[in-house]
What does this fold into?
Amino acid sequence: MTDLVIRTLSASDAHLFDALPDPLGAREAHRRTRFRPDWKRVALRDGEVVARGAWWGGPDDQEPVNINWFDVAEGEEEAGAELLRSAPRQVELEINLPGGRRDDPVVRAAAEARFTAARVAGYELLVERLLYRWTPESGLPERPGRLSFRTEPDDTVFFDALRCIHSATLDAHALKAIEEGGLDRAAQEELDFLHWCPSPREWWRTAHTPDGALAGIHIPAHNPSGPTIGFIGVVPEHRGRGYAFDLLVECTRHLVEQGAEFVSAATDRGNVPMAACFAKVGFPVVGERINFHPTTA
It folds into this structure.
């Protein structure tokens, strides 16, 4: 087998990125995503592209947030691994998969090839996530009316709420942050992400029971691809009452009132209560996201 050549692309040769088949439908999934040519890399063998990766970040980010497009040609898992392993930026890898991927042998094989390449490169599976997309055709429940919602300009209130919510969480990213730096780190990472989203800070809401106690928070947001459920969380002492449903309905309705024609969302596959809540509100599953993280950075 001939030697591998790995190249970072530029505006003049960005077309090389399109030289591979797209069995996972990444091009359609990323039709709203803007990639920088110099954050794209390809692996070539005999002049043919056999692996590709696109590192992505927001328009103002100086460094990429993650890799969210990664492909390998059939039998070229090692090339894909070297593409990841040799990258100057070691960040989380997202592999987005269409719904029903386990039932389609072509999609299943393509996904497994990418998983293999990631593992060979030293990446470890962090979590499998369900992707949702609400549209008006799904309908939307009425507001239950059990909670009152308030604006709150003080970030400390949200930081404390996030600390409390993450003290008993099923979220894999939060659990990783807690393991690495405790509850403060998990809360701060969440807060930093919410500030990073290009949507008004004034949208953030605290939720309260009739006696004024804090029940949770909800954050309607926009990410660079459009309106999304930024965060839903119920504090531990008020769980078991179905308040996540109330928060999700309120969050979705807020975005619709702001003109949203769709709302995206995601939750960990293992977060069964939140997955059930999305189903109850009318968010269909449209795909999956498999998150890998580098073991060395």
About this structure: The chain has seven helices and twelve strands. The first strand starts at residue 4 and ends at 8. Residues 216 and 234 are 4 Å apart (CA to CA). The chain has a mean pLDDT of 94.
